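Interim report, section 4.2 (structural modelling).
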Amino acid sequence: MSETRARPLRAAAVGYLNARPLCEGLDREPASGRMRVDCASPTEVARRVAEDEADFALMPVAAAASVGDLRIVRGCAIGSAGAVRSILIVGDRAIDSLDELSVDLSSRTSVVLARLVLRARRAGREPRLIGCSPREAIESVRGGRGALVIGDPALEIDGRFPHVVDLGLAWWEWTGLPFVFAAWCGRAGSVSAEDEQLLEAAKRAGLVRRNAFADEHAARTGLAPAILRGYLHQAIRYDLGDDERRGLERFYEEAARAALLPKARVRFFDEDRRSPVSPPSLDTLLARGADGERLSAAEGERLLAQASLFDLGLAADAVRRRKHPDGVVTYIVDRNVNYTNVCTTSCRFCAFYRPPGHAEGYVLSRAELGAKLAEVVDAGGVQILLQGGLNPDLRIAWYEELFRWIKREYKLGLHALSPEEILHIARLERMSVSGVLERLHQAGLDSVPGGGAEILVDRVRRTIAKAKCTSDEWLGVMRVAHHMGLRSSATMMYGTVDTPRDRVLHLIKIRDLQDETRGFTAFFCWDFQHERGTRIEPGDHGTVLYLRQQAIARLLLDNVDHVGASWVTQGPEVGQVALRFGADDFGSVMFEENVVSSAGTTFCMNAEAMERRIRAAGFKAARRNVRYEWLTHPS
Amino acid sequence: MTLEALSRKIQAGERLGFEDGVALFAHRDVMALGQLANEVRERLHGDRTYFNRNMRLEVTNVCVASCLFCSFAKLEEGAPGAHTMKLEEAWRELEARMDDPPAEIHIVNGLHPGLPFSYYEELLAGFKRIKPDVVLKCFTAVEIHFFARHYGMTYVEVLERLRRAGLDSLPGGGAEIFHPEVRQRIASDKATADEYLEVHRVAHRLGMRTNATMLYGHVETFEHRVDHLLRLRSLQDETGGLLAFIPLAFHPDGNGMKNLPAPTAIDALRTIAVSRLLLDNVAHVKAYWVSMTPEVAQIALRFGADDIDGTIVHETIYRAAGSRSPRGLTVAELVRLIQEAGRVPVERDTLYQVVREHPRAWVSEAALKVRERKANKHLEVL
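Predicted structure of the assembly:
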């Protein structure tokens, strides 16, 4: 019996040569009537499944674990049993003695595999990872720096480096099991038995055309046809049976033990049809989260929807206690200075900005700034948070002079310019992001505030802030900043058109980048501040939701040290309660904050009131700097 | 006693004693307290969370008492800011709202030495003339006691006369802290604890239902709070006439204790939770949003409270003491506040009879699915 569908399934597949045999004929009848397959990069394919833009996809298995609770099509995969040839670690010196490893970020599965293999071979030690493009990766190799090389560049790398480890082979030697790199995955129920037959047929048709694919690819790339034919016939294996399943299960097990991936189980679509599966209980998930195990997006979503407020709070509190057993809650004495309100983005949630040319537009003068900064110094402040609109009149030299002046005259820490502003300067100056950051860093920039992240799901961003950067751009600026040694915070503003799933995926994106850079010091979230008192707004709101959301963040962001309570938006009362829901930081004693107060939220709290609230919540209070180092003895 | 032992006691339905109460207040982990209280609250009420359409009115702030915590009362008529409404002025407050009328009028006043008793009788009768079914919850036990002294009547006489004029029920204000160590310091010249309790006892005997309060977070200790709660529990054992208990947070602005910090939100939640646990014979514990802010009141609905008070319309007593809560909330806002806590909003009357049960809204699976569908639809449009 065949079911009728309103629309064809939206499918996606990694666009690599080794995926072609699994996709042969899917663009023709009968398959094309049931599914439409787009090719994209592994990250993009995974994103589409996570953000429900694809029903199922041929996607990397690591990404599948991050999304969580996906089903797999039995029988089809891209894997290896022994040398894979296209996933290599190369170096000038022995791989086991490398200090740094350039990694191609387009393949998370390979990165996780590389880290597991290196840890296994080096008694748990691993080199520092540096994300870059495939070309940069190869070019960066020298001395103690090696590279993880993936795809075509790996296939033609023969003989270029004295030391090479084939990760397929390394896995085989370590575990005696095949490795599965990618498989057809989707949410439960998304793929029917008929669909699976079509995918199986595509594979059968594709396998016999491997030479043709290899030759076409050779003609396009200039790689040797013989190498590619050998690669598709001998290195890559397309089965997903019991042995491959054991290999995949072992991979998930090792990655979960190393807290690199959420604990994932391998579940085929056809198993669901035979017997329903019972998901782990909420208590199990909470206990795993509290113990520091990595949770998937699906698990986070389930907890957000179903766990009780207390269970979430207690689990988040347990994470906070494990990360900060001293029972100290920190805060910072700083000032938020909005140097200009002139902005070209017109975000719909913002009550602060004025378009260029508007009578109420301003740029603070040195005198105005100086007065504010002197007050900060007098109050014992240690930094300023400097943010503003995207003002087309302010060039990079203006910022450089400003930063140097602030450093020279006031010696305050500079937590300045969110990614959106950095991108704006880069566009204005026709410079690269790293070029801009390097110059600003030279001029005195100490750290980058995590503002403007809103929700790192582009569907949401396009709706609420059309002119703003994409999720990838935002994350990209942070990546560059982190690799330069700058630290930053991460934020989330929810409560517009975002769904619970969007909010969880936002956290996973931050976690993924943090795995690579370790550059985020802390996470803060708040809900969209519509005018207070009126409760008519488009999205999810409420204090209870805020507490739940913060607790979920503490549980999912297992690799971020600090979570802060946003008392500026939630009020000092709720901010204090939030300290029992996973936060270990109370944010800043703020002199002013123009953006949120334009939307009607105005709260003030001095250091004494802050410490009193911290103590009344059962903690010791300590002042901190932007790196979360204590400046006072906790008391 | 450890929290586990207390928890076992609570789950077994055993009554908690004085030491237990003090141990609960002193327990560091407010989350654990909240969870215990929440279990009791859910056993009693499930997710149902009550609110009503009420209107607060203070017809006079002239007061012979000189309570340290009060920023509202002005001692004498004619003092700056002193104001006593003319009857017509008070009635107009109701007349002006007859298109969406309150179900209950809640009146609390200063202890005015110069008004005739008939002022109060006429006040009530006038409201009933305008809206015969409006419930009048007026005059704290402290006022009733003052009336009895001032006009030379017994409590029964005062209550009977007011009842004939339209009084339905007494609010719980004026309880402050019962223990004499505290009461003599902060409220020495008004009804004592015994007098407050006696007024309620008499009212209950006459068939009226009343509320009770506790003003916490100033100079009192945890022992004083527990003593206060246990005195109320004894009264309730005797009469069963208390409908709801309402902890009131001290606000320091502009009063005789302005150097004290206000209690924090954690203390507010702790007090709600321990009240719920100790007052095993009082049906409802109220998170009075005016005192706590609507935000913290919402959290309190998960820490033992099952009522969030009402629309209020225009409160002046807390406002005078520096509260930054709004002066009133609409029914829609109250419903949303409750729904956001994942609870079921129930509009009630004064006696907790259901007027209307609203749908649960927020985290239900169904709601999530609707959202997802919307999100996907949005995607297709793009």
